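Interim report, section 4.2 (structural modelling).
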Amino acid sequence: MFADAIAALKARFPQAADRASLDHPAVNVPAADVPAVLEYLRDRAEFDFLADVTAIDWSEKVSPRFTVVYHLFSTASHEYVRIAADCPDDAAPAVPSVTRLWPGANWHERETFDMFGINFAGHPDLRRILMWDGYPHFPLRKEFPLAGIETTLPDPDVVAATHAKVKPAPMVGGPFVATSGELNLSDSEPRAKDESWNERGEKPE
Amino acid sequence: MPTEFAFPDAAAKNAAGEFETEKMSLSMGPSHPSTHGVLRVQLELDGETVISADPVVGYLHRGDEKIAENMTYNQFVPYTDRLDYLAPLANNMAYAIAVERLAKLELPPRCQAIRVITAELARISSHLMGLGAYAIDVGAWSVFLYTFGEREKLYRLFEELTGARFTTSYTRIGGVTRDVPPGWTERVTGFCDQFLPILEESMKLLTRNKIFLDRTMGIGVISKADAIAYGLTGPNLRGSGVPLDLRKDKPYSGYEQYEFDVPVGSTGDCYDRYLVRGEEMRQSVRILKQAVAKFPEGPWHVVDARKIFGPRKEKILTSMEELIQNFMLVTEGPQMPAGEVYFEAENPKGALGFYVVSKGGGVPWRLKIRSPSFCNLSILPKVCVGAMVSDVVSILGSLDFVMGECDR
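Predicted structure of the assembly:
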């Protein structure tokens, strides 16, 4: 039944191709076909549970650069299937939204948009979810550095409206940051410390 | 220049002859005691009734997925502690199994049994916290004192096993950090024996408590279809009557050997979710007793996986080859083949999934964490509509989420 479902899917969508996978069956489909394929799997093959939506950035040097990956689960046969779609445009990646099929896709797609900047066409409310509104970068893209990029916080329009005075925490050299070499831990920790002994002075008897 | 406050005309009526009311927007959180962490719910209110609720998440976002792309597989284990920090042992296990699936490693039975025991202890610990905190949310203080007493006993077991009470970091890819200490499994049995009467006692404070029933029964009803459509997992899904438990339906780490029941709710309200969690603790005790009773002998980590699991400490200190092997493992990480896997484990909060994309080597190319709390919270805008503000507190508590896991 389960193997049939994948074979039937490929018969129904000839453009679907096998995807290399170490565990669950996986299928590559063109981005435009994603809603149709997922709807087919949901209604005809009992893959009624959208477990996860995410994306992979294959780095700036690779084209197609972004792949959106869907994991479906069947509450009847207890199997997973992985559907992947390459975004055709590297500069403005986009796939059609599947919020129409599963309302739970809403937050997953918002997160993928937030982290990768992939546009989900037809999404009812495509706002950032983990980062704040107006954050200028897409942190899970490969060119984004691990240390982060300093940005103004909060947004200028929020400051104009609320007169908020927020000083962003320093990225390096802050009170809680232990750097190697120059500063030792008891100097960089602002908590109340017993000055009578530390790593430079012996503990009094 | 502050404008002078004027009372609205109390007698003003609209065309239909009803009194004009104003909608109020209320920000609940991010530091509200009932939001269990840093969740903000932007409520639109008509009097005391919720018209719309928009959860604002991300206050605890630390970029765990970005961090994972920049370190070896074993180095990421401590970060999994900090996802659902009420059940770190279960997270450790889910992450380790996901990466082991990548390498197609078969773990020896003893290691699997150790992981099952730790995961079930973590489930009890997490549900005890959920139960106690939920009781406080709806106005019953004393349950918390009982459940926290029990959690303290669990923490003692965790500390003896892993060296840490809270951030355990117990698993390694291909095994665990150390074997169980002598007598530990007997102490687990001892905990189980004394735990059941105390669980009954603390649940007795709530199950037929009039105030608790009024605050939870018929509140926050989630239908079967909605629970599936929104991707709910764990006790929240089962509370809505869907008998889906990955330990039963997609067994991992030897769960197929243990007998246990999967409790489900009938109406999908807050009360059902509470009952499901209570019953799950009893079932966890059943699993623990079976796992201890047939606790297998043998190795507690993979053997013949020299590029994945490190050698024993005494070997490193005495043998050149093991020293080199350890050096390579620490600097380059456990060597994984290229490919991708997706693994979900039944954690206390729901299905915790790890999607690992590897290009080979010791560092993942992409690691996606599918967090159950994130998916469970996404139903909030739907389930809160029409509820009272006090019901929102009740609903939030019954969903039992952890923001560390939601925001990652």
